Amino acid sequence: MWRPTDEEQKMVLSFILDPEFVLINMQQDSFAHAKMTISKNEFLRVLYWLEQENFLIRLKNVPYNQKKYFLTDKGDLLYRKLSADE
Fold first, then answer.
1. Cα-based distances in Å from 27 to 34, 40, 62, 72
2. 48-70 per-position pLDDT tens digit
3. pTM of the entire structure?
């Protein structure tokens, strides 16, 4: 089964931790290209994998242009582990 690299996981988790990041921001090229080293499709693939593995939670019925993805406790532990491995 496919699994994203540690670097990909850390990048997506860091975006989710950013209070300014809303998924809709990915449509603004200046925001996305400044920080991303993977394509938008790859970003979404990693995002959905993290959600499936319970590292992220997606809130339902969130108004457009509002933050809807957040780290779970498991996701926070993963991010700390990946950050410590630097």
1. 13, 9, 18, 25
2. 999 999 999 998 887 777 788 99
3. 0.83
All domains in the chain, ordered by first residue: 6-84 (1.10.10.10)
Residues in the chain: 86
Nearest CA to 1 out of 35, 52, 38 is that of 52
63 phi-psi bin (left φ>0, alpha ψ -120 to 50, beta other): beta
Q: What is the DSSP string of 9-41?
A: HHHHHHHHH-TT--GGGGGSHHHHHHH-SS-HH
Task: For the chain, give percent helix, strand, coil, nearest 5.
Answer: 55, 5, 35
- Give me the residue label for tokens 């499709």: 41
